[in-house]
Each structure stands twice: as structure tokens, then as C-alpha cells.
Write a structure and sequence with these properties.
With 134 residues, the chain is of the alpha/beta class. The chain has helices at 18-26, 31-37, 47-56, 61-77, 88-99, 108-116, and strands spanning 13-16, 42-46, 79-81, 102-104, 121-125, 129-133. It has a six-stranded mixed β-sheet with strand order 3-2-1-4-5-6, with helices on both faces. A hairpin with a 3-residue loop joins β5 and β6 (129-133). The longest helix is centred in the middle third of the chain and has 17 residues, at 61-77.
Amino acid sequence: MEVNRGRNNKVRCAVLDTNVLMYIFLYKVDVFSQLKEFGVSRFIVPTQVFNELKSLEKSKGSEKRAARFALNLVKLNCEIVEVDAHGADNALIKIAEDYGCYLITNDKALRKKARKNKIIVGYIRELKKLEIEE
């Protein structure tokens, strides 16, 4: 599988976790624009994350609205990739490894697992700013 890197070996893709996609609505964080500032031009969501958002869309209140908003964003801005992995976390790790992507999540346990696998991790700091750990 092709590693999606541009000149100077910079990462050009990001795989996004459910929590980050929900934060876009809940905390008005423009994750896509911030990732573009890091040179990211390709946004990937595993089917497992897409399905989590569909399940969350059945919730109530702001969680339901956030999930619906996130699903629309994914459909408009992201590539939905089917991955042979059990669960969203494993799918995110697999895509990040196979495609050479940043893994964007606010899940501390997943970030730790990704770092152990030498994956560059990003997260939303202070519910406002995207931080990439290079």
C-alpha cells in the first residue's frame, strides 16, 4: 500500500477518530482547516468509526446532533475505508500504519498505543487547538 507522503517525507493524510469528529460540533473546533495547515490533504475514516457515528446518531440531545453533523462532514470531506480489524481503535492504528497517516484522537489510551507503534499522533488540546506530536 502506498504511503501518502509528500516532499521532505511530510505526512499528507490523517485518519480521524469518532471523538475528534464529534468535537468539531460540540466545541466548534475546525479540525480540517487546522490539519490543512500541517499539510494534510487527505482525510480518512475507517468504516468502524463511520458505524460508531451512525450508532451515536440514535442518541438524544447534543450527542445526536454532533453525530449527525460529523456524519455529514465525513461524507463531504473524508474517504471511508474498509479495514479488516476488530474495533475502531485497531482500524485507526492499521490505517495510520498502512497509509503513513497522522492518527487524530483524544483517546489517551489509543494515543499511547499509537506512539508505541511509531505513529504520529494528533489531538485537540484545551478543546480548541489541534496539537501534533512529531
